[in-house]
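Re: the 202-residue chain
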Amino acid sequence: MTAEDTYQTILEPSEALFTEKRSKFIALAYPVGNLDEIKTHIDAAQKKYYDARHVCYAYMLGHERTNFRANDNGEPSGTAGKPILGQINSNNLTDILIIVVRYFGGIKLGTGGLIVAYKAAAAEVIATCTVIEKTVDEEVIVLFEYPFMNDVMRIVKEEEPEIVAQSYDMDCSMTLRIRQSMMNRLRARLEKVETARIPEQN
């Protein structure tokens, strides 16, 4: 069981080919972080496979898995995007876009056949992907006076957050990133450092 503050995605783009009754299904999987990336990949696929009958896709974004979309691109409703999304869900993946390009082979597959074929193409490309686990991270900003730098650095060394940004003047500030489940302890320790304050983040 994955922890609350981890999620699974894919490491790098991948491609797979599935054929059914002479129809060719090219499945492409991409790791994505936002809608702009998704749009770029879809536009590129539509240009590259401009002569294909259909360029269908589904994506899932964010560790809460609430931002998703399925697109049938002219195939009968629910026969392409939904089965692709179904595979993303059953593999528990997010931050992923799967595009399936279909070249019609002259033999109609029927709605049932289409659902099976799009599902199989999506499953095939996921099988070729390297699935990785990532943590859901949060950031905290801590402000403190220079003489207390060592106290802060000791906590950073022990708790091992990533240092995202830092500036040292008379007043120092440090932005730290750590996985969600460890944030409360990090904050509590930082707040105990003399002169340290953690501004509210909206």
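The first strand starts at residue 6 and ends at 10.
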